[in-house]
Amino acid sequence: MTDYAIVEHGGKQYRVSPGDELLVERTQPDLKKGDNLLFEKVMLVSQGDAVRVGQPTVDGVVVRSQVVAPVRGDKIIVFKKKRRKGYKKTQGHRQDYYRVRVEAIEA
């Protein structure tokens, strides 16, 4: 059995194991490559055959990760229109992310 945890960050939940790389929303503004990012909202921890489920979080468990790179997502187009009113508005948006590597699940 592999060790894994379910963490919440930026309003989304991720299933993480040590060694995983994932994209998370940039909630802290100025982290650089090599900085540590700590996930403290851990919803579930599985270690071997033992599974601990939090209500809503598991106390005393943190997931340590390291920033691999700050990246930006693909550009999306936001288009708004009200029919028959002559109103059109086009905007673009690129979300900022951190690519992180999970180092350890500390229970």
Secondary structure topology:
Layout lengths: L3 E6 L2 E5 L4 E5 L10 E4 L2 E6 L2 E4 L8 E11 L3 E7 L4 E7 L2 E11 L1
Describe the largest sheet. Answer: 4 strands, antiparallel
Number of domains: 1
The number of helical elements comes to: 0
- Termini separation comes to 17 Å
What's the β-strand tally? Answer: 10
Give the class from helix and strand content and strand pairing. Answer: mainly beta
Order of helices and strands: EEEEEEEEEE
Low-confidence stretches: none
**Level of helix content?**
under 10%
Morphology call? elongated
Strand content: over 45%
Protein name: Large ribosomal subunit protein bL21
GO molecular function: rRNA binding; structural constituent of ribosome
Organism: Candidatus Sulfomarinibacter kjeldsenii
Function: This protein binds to 23S rRNA in the presence of protein L20.
Short recap of the structure:
0% of the residues lie in helices and 62% in strands.
How would you describe the overall organization of this protein?
- With 107 residues, this protein is mainly β.
- The protein is built from no helices and ten strands.
- The protein is 0% helix and 62% strand.
- It has a four-stranded antiparallel beta sheet with strand order 2-1-5-6, with no helix packed on it. The chain has a four-stranded antiparallel beta sheet with strand order 3-10-7-4, with no helix packed on it. A two-stranded antiparallel sheet has the order 8-9.
- The radius of gyration is 18 Å and the shape is elongated.
- The mean pLDDT is 94.
